[in-house]
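Input for the complex:
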Amino acid sequence: MIGQVEQTRMPRRRDAIERHDRLVAAAQQEFAVRGVNASLEAIARDAGVAIGTLYRHFPTRMDLLLAAFEPRLQEFLEGAKLSIEIADPWEGFVSYLENLFRVQAGDRGFNDFLSRRFPGNAETERIHDQMCLHIASVLTRAQKAGQARSDIRLADIVNLIWSNGRMIDATGTTAPNEWRRHLYLMLDAYRAERAHPLPEPPMTDEQLYDAMVHLGNAD
Amino acid sequence: MIGQVEQTRMPRRRDAIERHDRLVAAAQQEFAVRGVNASLEAIARDAGVAIGTLYRHFPTRMDLLLAAFEPRLQEFLEGAKLSIEIADPWEGFVSYLENLFRVQAGDRGFNDFLSRRFPGNAETERIHDQMCLHIASVLTRAQKAGQARSDIRLADIVNLIWSNGRMIDATGTTAPNEWRRHLYLMLDAYRAERAHPLPEPPMTDEQLYDAMVHLGNAD
DNA sequence: GAATAAGGGGAGGTACCCCTCAGGTTTACA
DNA sequence: TGTAAACCTGAGGGGTACCTCCCCTTATTC
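Predicted:
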């Protein structure tokens, strides 16, 4: 299962549980607005907790990120489940992407999270691996049905996720539904009947991986 | 003329001129690699100059940016001139975008610069205004010829610039020509034939402007 | 070669942010 | 109710970056 985030050991004492929850809530808020690089000190402040307490509960930023993104991941997974049950492969593909982008559009941190990889963290690597497999299978199904053009690959969809992410960064405040326009425009590019030859091969798996890592380092 | 960057008053003394040039060279290097938010202290260091000297020559970051981007702007303009001379409107449109993206791909700072607006700076506002007009006219020409779909607008092309920018950020090191694949994929979405209806209206001019400003604030 | 204006240097103030750790506080449990 | 373990706090060390300002240096000009 993709979204099964390993539980951070829950604290035992009542006050600790309460602080833990306040931290997660503050983190969700801050990450959603400012992205995965939100200030941890600001999160602690919002939670009304000292910075040391934040570190006691979540020793690394990634621990806090995973706790904060748990609901987003579930939200995505529920939508994805509905999508793959759709009989028509193209409709399923469209629905899958629309669901993904909707979740992505609602949370800047999750948006960042989707676009990157964090090598060295087994937890996130597993989630990303599974998502890639999932996306690839939805795409392949639409290709086998002759509805999606046959020359696109997972890497092109990841690129779409990047594009969408950037669009959301830009328009999130100003034109919050604009991402749907962009998606449907791109869908016209993906239809089999509109395909023209492409000048460059798709990225290899390795190139794709490196590119996702690079997005994280660059900031 | 788009690219006519106002000369920063050239310094008078020989040593000052030399430092000025070293600063511009270092800035081009740093901005190209790290984007418009490159550290000014690093630029001064690279140029072998004290930070105070940098500020004497370029009181604001934007002054230095404009000096550094001058050649990029010229490079773009020369290519653009060739593009609009192409007889076939669609070919001209494609060539225009390909030229723009090539320049964008070569310089991360210029990439940032293209995607944003800097309100309050008359110089850059003028450049951006002119570029928008220019892009719109190339697009309109291809639409009047019935080659580009009629329901796309300048805002959609700016979105393409954003998308391309993000792709370059991700793949610049790993797969440096991948942006061409993405462009040609998008071109299939822009062709008039068999266009499918879009679910959202294009951004208004104001929304577009705000979105470009927002990208700058967010970082 | 002296006077002077232009230019250069860089320490230091401000503001973030990350993360640790010693010492004080509170809960839970017997 | 007393004690031990769990927990909390926040000052503080380390880092980065922005920008200013005063004093010193140097090119130019006569």
